[in-house]
Structure prediction request, 316 residues.
Amino acid sequence: MLPPLPKGRGIRIDILMNDITYRDRATGKLKKEKIYGKFFLETLYGNNIFSRLLLLPLFAHIPFFSKQYGKRQKRKKSRTKIIPFIRDFHVDVSEFADPIESFNSFNDFFIRKLKPKARPIKKGSDMVVFPADGRHLVFPNLEKVEGFYVKGQKFNLRSLLDNEELVEKYREGSMVISRLCPTDYHRYHFPCSGTPGKAKLINGPLFSVNPIALRKHFSILSENKRVITPVETTSFGTLLYIEVGATCVGSIQQTYTPEKPCKKGDEKGYFEFGGSCVILLFEPSKIIFDQDLVETSAQYIETYAKMGTSMGKKML
Prediction:
């Protein structure tokens, strides 16, 4: 059992040093996240007037800046960043489907594919898996979700979905938040078998989804540019699959085919350069999350786990 979270806190972040602590599911140990672009995030989401009134509105609400930065990562000369990035963040090159030399830009490296054996998919039609590599929070009943980034504030489902019928349907459903860092594998996959519908784009700003930013602007997850796809599943009802864009990630690419049946673990799409987030919404009484995830999330601690590993099972 993990030690209790200090009273009055949201997700585990050292307020002075902005350290982000998560649980590594493979080892069970707490680790500090190494943040890519930490100085930029602390400057952008700082408490000074310059950041609040000028920098943040410019970067978040004007897509020009994210687009221009994203274009720079697609230039050939950005390849020089690949080796230092791999070294500094200990990226496992043995998982790559293609050799490093084949990447023509930093973005090519960022959206890399992995060898199939690098992410084995948990078998069983009654089992659901994580859709992406990342730091995850799970909530069995969305109606009771509050305080996971800022204590006492409820998640705004109405803003997220922008659809009253869906709000009513998923009001007491289950939710998964999978936060991807720039250091992660950035392709996302289907957590269970089913038939995906068409993706619907809801435009919005491009705030960072790092907890440093989320503690300052809790509404980010429900307001950022996002794409919602309904998935008619064989065991879990209608799943809502939501990709959330972030700073420098205005580009959410879909690689799946709407109305074509998919298998658990099939690729759905990928995020281009930057940190980003996937949110899954299940109908009420459809899923039972793995107990370790429930316990850790209840303490406002994210769990790092890889795509394809167990997240829960069908509720009988």
About this structure: Residues 73-118 form one domain.
